[in-house]
Design goal:
Helices cover 19% and strands 19% of the residues. By secondary structure, it is α/β, with parallel strands linked by helices. The chain has a five-stranded mixed sheet with strand order 4-3-5-1-8, with helices on one face. A three-stranded mixed sheet has the order 2-6-7, with no helix packed on it.
Length: 143
């Protein structure tokens, strides 16, 4: 298995509101995807659903879909981006990251926002350059 990144997302749903993989699949199909775009979905209780097989391209980050996409349920509080991960989600996300890095040790963990365009060309994706706040936490300090 060879991929450059492990791309983290949130569902951009309110804190504490569970969302099923089937519901996200409906959202993604309504946007023209063939099926749910993420490879993995981490629920509030830490359970992990498989959305797409790892050998299958995702539909989660334009230009980066050959990399695994992981979403956690949440990411919003009172309509604003917020790190809403539960302790169980944090545990599962770290375990999943470890498994994926065992398959591809050189892979870098990044947030969807970290893949934004560097508008000022300084080599750093700053908050004002994010195309979105997703996943509502700093992936690089977590993994």
């Amino acid at each position: 298995m060879n991929f450059k990144y492990i791309v983290y997302h949130c569902t951009a749903t309110e804190q504490g509101k569970e969302v099923s993989l089937a519901e996200i699949d409906r959202w993604h199909r309504a946007r023209g995807f063939r099926k749910v775009g993420y490879h993995f979905l981490v629920h509030l209780n830490g359970d992990i659903d498989i959305g797409r097989n790892l050998g299958e391209p995702g539909a989660h980050a334009k230009g980066y879909n050959d990399n695994p996409g992981i979403a956690y349920v949440g990411g919003m509080r009172n309509g604003e981006p917020w790190d809403t991960r539960t302790a169980a989600q944090i545990h599962s996300l770290r375990a999943l990251d470890k498994v994926l890095k065992s398959l591809c040790p050189e892979a870098e963990s990044v947030g969807h926002r970290d893949l934004s365009v560097d508008l000022n060309g300084d080599g750093v994706i700053s908050k004002n350059e994010w195309m979105k706040a997703c996943p509502s936490f700093d992936v690089k300090t977590q993994f």
